[in-house]
Amino acid sequence: MTRTIDLDGQWTLYYFPQGEHQISEPAQLQTFSMQPIAGQVPGNVELDLVEAGLLPDPYVGDNIYELQQYETYEWWYERELQVDVPIGSRRIELIFHGVDCMAAYWLDNELIGHSDNMLIEHRFDVSGRIKQGQKHKLTIRIRSAVIEAMSKRYDPSSRAMQTNYEQLWIRKAPHMYGWDIMPRAVSAGLWRSVELVVHEANEIDDLYFTTVEATERHAVVQLFYQMRAEPRRLRNLQLKITAVCGSSRYEQTYPLRFTYGHLRFAIPNPSLWWPRGYGEAALYEVTTELLSGEEVLDTRVDHIGIRTVELIRTDISTIEHPGQFMFKVNGVPILIKGSNWVPLDMFHSKDADRVAEAIDLAVDLNCNMLRCWGGSVYEDHDFFDLCDRNGILVWQDFAMACAMYPQDPAFQEALRKEAEVIVRKLRNHPSLAIWCGDNECDDSFVYTGLDPNDNVLTRKVLPDVLFQHDPYRPYVPSSPYISPEAYRLKNEDAYPERHLWGARDYFKSSFYSMARSHFAGEMGYHGCTSLSSIRKYIEEEHVWPWKDNEQWVTHATAPVRGPDSAFRYRVQLMADQINELFGQYPERIEDFIIASQISQAEAKKYFIERVRMRKWHTTGVLWWNLIDGWPQFSDAVVDYYYSKKLAYHYIKRAQQPICIMVDEPDSWHIRVKVGNDSNQAANGTFRVWDADSSETLLEGPFEIEANGLGDLGAIRAPRSQQRLLLIRWEIDGIEYGNHYLQGTPGFSYEQYKSWLEKIALLPQGFQADEVGV
Questions:
Q1: Residue 2: predicted pLDDT
Q2: Where does the pLDDT of residue 246 fall: very low under 50, low under 70, confident under 90, or very high at 90 and above?
C-alpha cells in the first residue's frame, strides 16, 4: 500500500527584500546574518510575522496596510526530513498541495524543480534521492509575486480593476490583490500540506466515475480506470468493484486487458443522489481492488453519487424568444436557492478550519447550491465531501474574475495545466454540478467594447480541457455568459443568467422587480455587523460615528489607504439603504446596526421569494453571500466571527422546501402563494393575519403538488397601506412561519422594531433582542 509521510508543522523561515542579498541557493543562507523565525506549515508568512511579534494583528483597525511593505520580499523555508519506512526501489513523490506562489525547490541543496501557481498541487519525483533512515534537507524559495508581475508584458487586450492589475499574469487567488470584499493581502507561504508519498509498484493510479443513466428503477455507471503495474503482472490483472449504499449492493470482478480502460455497470433499484429538499443525498461507498489472481495489490475507496445533472439553457432570452437557464437532476427541474461561496479567510492556510462550520450554516439555511466564486482559490476535498453528504450542488468557477486575462500562448498553456489538475482532482464529486469559465470576465470585455466570444481562454482552452477530462458535466464560459447573439443585442436583459446588482437602491425597485433574467448568479444587499463584532475589528475610538470613519472604510473593504480608494462608497451605501427604507440616518450605533440588518434581511427575503413566486420563469438565485472571509461591513449574512445577522433567519424561512409567501400588490390585491421545492406533494392548513390587529385575512386548507407553485387566494391591499402580515402553516403536525412587509418606504423604524418581536416568535424563531448585539 502507498505510504504517506506528513511534512507539516514547524519549518525555519528566512525572509528579506528580494534582491537585497545575493542569495540564490540554500547553501548561501548560512552566510545570512538575520535570524530566521518559525514558519508554520500549512501557513502564511504574515501569520508567522504576527506570531513572532513583528506585525500587529492584521484583522484589527488599519493594521492590514502594514502587510504591503512585505510584498516585494522573498521567503525561504527549510526543514529536515527522515523516512524510516522501507523504500527499496519504490517511486517517491514530494507533494506540495499549495504553494504561494513563485517557488524553487531543493532537496539536499540540489534543485529539483520550480512552480508558479498557487492554485494547484505540485509533485516532484524524488525516487532514488531519499534513503531510508537518512536525514535530508528540504528548502523552498518563494519569490515576490508582485515583482514577478512587474516583469511581464501587458497588451491593450488585457485589463483588470485598478487595484489589482497584478492578478493578470500570476496564478494566484485574484482577491489577494484587493477587492471590495477582501483586503489587499498579497501573501506568500506553504498554505496547504506538504507530504512525501512512497508508492508501490502496482497501484490504482486514477478512477473516474460518471453516471450514464439514473432512474428509480435502473442506473448505469461508467468507470474509466488507470493503473500502474509491473509488466509481469499484466496478463493476470483484475479489477473488483464493490458498491454499497444501504441495502443496495453491486459487486463484480472484471479482467483487465491493459492498465487503462473503461467499463459500465448497471445497478437495479438504485439509491439516487438528490439536492437538498428533493430527496436523500445517497452516497455509494465504492471499494475498488486491483487484483493479481487472488492477491490484492491495491485498494481504493470512493464515495460516489448516482445522479445525472443537466443545464438546460439558451444563449439569449427575449420577449420574442423566451429563453431558459434551468438545472435538472435525475431529469427533475430543480429550483436553485443558494449562496455565493467566497474566500473563507484572507489567509488561505486558515480555510480548512472554517469549512465545516460554514457548510453547517449552508445546510441550516436549506441551500441546495453554492457557487465557488472565481476570485478565490479552488476548495479542497473536505469542502466537496461535505457538499456531497449534504446534497449541496456546487457551481465551480475557474479562478479568473473581473478582468481580461492575457491571450498569450504562454498564459493559455499555464491555464490549461491548471485546469487539468483541478478537473481531474474534483470530477468524482457528485455535488460538482457545473464548471464555469470565470466570474464577470465577459462583462469586462463588453465594458471595453470588445467581444467576449474572442476570449480564447473560455471559448477554447477550458472547453478543450473539459472535453478531455470531464466531458459529461455542463460548462458555461462565463457568469454571466454573453453569447454572440447577446453581444449583438447589447442588452443585459437578454442574458438568461445575470448578476443583479444595479444601483442597490430600494430592493423592490424596478431593477429587481422587472428583471427578466431566469437565474441570478449574484444578488446582494448590505447589512451591518453586530456591535460585539465591530468592537473586535474597529478600535474603540473609531467605533462611531460611521460617517468619514477611515477604519469603517478600511473594513468596507478598501484595498488601499486614502481618498482615492475605489470602494469608499460602500459605507455610505449601507447608510443610504437604511435611509431608503426608514427615511433616516440613525444617530446611535445600536439603531444603525438594527436598521441596517432589517434592510438587508427584507431585501434578501424578497430576492428569494421573487424567484420562488415566478417559478419556472425564474429558476434560481445565488445570493451574495454566506460568510465573510475577514471582519467587514458587507453583504454576508454571517460575519467573520460567525455572528448571524437578521437576514440569516429570514433566509432560513424563505428557503424551506415548502413555503407560503405573499406577492406584491396588483389590482388592489396581494396574492398568497405556496411554493413546493421538493419531490413530494403536500397538504396542510394555513393562516395569514395582521400583526397589529390580529385580524385573520386569509386561512384554510391547502394542497400543493410536488415541485409546484399554487395560489391560495387574495387579500385586499392598496399600495399606500403599510402593515406587517404574519403567516403560519402546518404540515403533518409541524408548524412553519413567514411574514410579509406590505407597503412602500419610508417605514417607521420604531414600528418595525415592535414587529420584529412578533416575527421572531413565528416557528423557526430567533431572539429578537439579540439582533445587532
A1: 81
A2: very high
The C-alpha cell that represents 630 in the structure block:
475577514
Residue of 460 and 235 predicted with greater confidence: 460
**Dist CA 480 CA 313 (whole Å):** 12
Contact 426, 435 (CB under 8 A): no
Cell of 675: 411554493
Residue span of the structural domain in which 249 resides: 203-304
Domain count along the chain: 3
Q: State the residue for C-alpha cell 534521492.
A: 129
| Dihedral angle of Cα 629, 635, 641, 642, to the nearest 10 degrees | -110
Give domain status of residue 719, yes or no.
yes
Neighbouring residues of 723: CB distance < 8 A, sequence distance ≥ 6: 690, 691, 692, 742, 743
Across 217-238, b (16+ Cβ under 10 Å) vs e yields eebbbebebebbbeeebeeebe
Q: 626-675 pLDDT, tens per residue?
A: 999 999 999 999 999 999 999 999 999 999 999 999 999 999 999 999 99
Compute CA distances 477 → 118, 316, 414, 440, whole Å: 23, 14, 18, 10
> Within a domain: residue 589?
no
Amino acid letter, 209: F
Of 648, 610, 608, 621, nearest in space to 527 by CA: 648
Tell me the CATH number at 279: 2.60.40.10
Assigned domain for 157 exists: yes
